[in-house]
Write a structure and sequence with these properties.
mainly beta, Lipocalin, 2 helices, 9 strands, elongated
């Protein structure tokens, strides 16, 4: 669910369009000793068909908020298909290490998102043991084993500075409802992100928390940057 910072701002407009996006994503990860190639495809839809407005209003009304009628001007229905590819390269050659660095380059093209990005992961171990290798870490979801119960325990913090260049973003540039078409939103192609997080893995469980701060993605945004958080709980089955 993409929403503006406030329902309304001073000139009775909003700083970004409302948009709902629902999708399924499939990825194929091929890890070698020091590098990896990840490819994927995303299928779904954007717009009222996703029922994002109904879901958000139901959740908000359950805790006492009134219905947000501004969703009536959301980005309209559009079929979603995106393909992407990422190349990862470890920059740390030593086998025994407590800190390491991993560079990633990603390209994505499709009907909803088209962009390229580059980032640098750095892991800092919080255990006395050594970091798990590049091709067997929860950081990159490469910690898959024939017997999940023997996965190496991991506990580390990580940093991820990233630079993005966006060619198209349908959640900003897609077709608006009739009443909102007079509003033009201006995409800022170049933006930066900074993610800091902590991850823990033991036996079958993977847990993580991250905070991401990113610069403006369109001119009309009120703040120069925005922040969101992410919690992940994963369980490895046989």
């Amino acid at each position: 669910m993409y929403t503006p910072q406030f329902h309304k701002i001073k000139d009775n407009s909003i700083d970004r369009p409302y948009a709902g996006y629902a999708f399924l994503n499939y990825k194929n990860n091929k890890f070698n000793k020091n590098n990896a190639l990840i490819t994927g495809i995303e299928l779904g839809a954007i717009g009222p068909v996703t029922k994002a407005a109904e879901i958000q209003n139901t959740l908000h009304q359950s805790i006492g908020y009134s219905e947000n009628k501004a969703w009536k001007n959301q980005i309209q229905n559009k079929f979603a298909i995106n393909i992407e590819a990422s190349y990862l390269q470890t920059l740390s050659k030593k086998k025994k290490r407590y800190i390491d660095f991993i560079a990633t380059t990603t390209a994505k093209i499709g009907t909803i998102h088209s962009h390229v990005s580059a980032n640098l992961y750095s892991r800092i171990n919080l255990l006395k043991t050594l970091l798990s290798p590049f091709n067997a870490t929860t950081l990159l979801d490469s910690n898959l084993y024939n017997q999940p119960t023997i996965q190496q325990k991991e506990f580390f913090i990580y940093l991820r500075p990233q630079v993005n260049y966006t060619f198209y973003n349908a959640t900003i540039q897609g077709s608006l409802a009739n009443e909102a078409r007079q509003v033009n939103y201006t995409l800022i192609p170049l933006n930066i992100e900074m993610e800091i997080g902590i991850k823990y893995a033991c036996k079958r469980m993977n847990l993580s928390y991250a905070a991401v701060r990113y610069s403006k993605t369109l001119e009309e945004m009120i703040e120069a940057s925005n922040t969101y958080g992410a919690i992940k709980i994963a369980y490895l089955f046989d």
